[in-house]
Write a structure and sequence with these properties.
There is one protein chain. 40% of the residues lie in helices and 19% in strands. With 253 residues, it is an alpha/beta fold.
Length: 253
């Protein structure tokens, strides 16, 4: 990956970003052309694709992308460990290189790749350390989400807001960019205790390590988000998420 290069010799600002993409059986949903087009147009963003023990041809697809694009790297977790472990592994790999920003993005591109550039620019402005995608249906936007998921999400977000004492609207959108910092590296130092709601655990950890965290995070309303068919999250997974919330409450309260 080109990110192994050191900072500019002229002392210029490092603006490079690494985006971790967790992948489990994404052969039919991962659009390699969209990723490659974005890579060609956005030279400051690299990708770390993490194959999370896929049983289909996802790994072969990712290897082809990697072979054609030197700014892509593939990590292969031979056993399925879950999204939390895949994202954690990707961040640990990104921290080995000279990136100023690190984030993660869902492989199905429910959130368009162009938003990566927008999120990085917001963090780069200096006011915020984290930008989270926020799926708010407004006039003039294209937020296509199943009604049932929307209302379950609102109940879930309300519980999380009460749990963490923060006015969070959307924790589970799979589009997040962070400024590289000692707080971020400390947040990802240890594996996550939860499997289904690690996004919430990230927030809980950062709040614990950074006292003014609530002032340093921005939920960015998305212009477009599409609920892509083929989601691997079941009703049982949703119920287990509430169990994970209890774990977070007991650990980080």
């Amino acid at each position: 990956m080109s990110a192994t290069k050191k900072k500019k010799k002229d002392g210029g600002e490092n603006t490079r970003a690494a985006v971790v993409v967790p992948c489990h059986n994404e052969e039919k949903r991962l659009d390699s052309k969209k990723f490659e087009t974005f890579i060609d147009n956005e030279t400051n963003v690299d990708f770390v694709f993490v194959n999370d023990g896929s049983s289909d041809s996802t790994l072969e697809l990712l290897r082809k992308i990697e072979a054609r694009n030197p700014r892509c790297q593939v990590l292969d977790l031979r056993e399925n460990r879950g999204k939390a472990a895949a994202v954690h592994a990707g961040f640990q790999e990104a921290f080995k290189h000279d990136y100023a920003y690190v984030g993660f993005w869902d492989a199905d591109l429910a959130t368009p790749l162009d938003d990566i550039t927008r999120f990085v620019e917001i963090v780069k402005s200096g006011k915020y350390d984290c930008v989270f995608g926020c799926r708010v249906l407004r006039m003039g936007t294209e937020i296509k989400r199943k009604t049932s998921r929307h209302y379950i999400g609102r109940i879930y977000a309300t519980i999380i807001s009460l749990l963490l004492g923060l006015p969070i609207y959307d924790t589970q959108c799979g589009a997040k960019i962070f400024r590289r910092s000692e707080y971020l590296e400390k947040t990802f130092e240890k594996p996550f205790r939860t499997k289904w709601v690690f996004d919430v655990e990230i927030i809980a950890r950062m709040k614990m390590y950074q006292q003014d965290f609530h002032k340093r995070v921005y939920e960015c309303p998305l212009e477009k988000w599409t609920d892509v068919e083929g989601s691997q999250v079941s009703l049982l997974d949703g119920l287990m998420a509430f169990v994970d919330l209890f774990k977070i409450w007991t650990r980080y309260k």
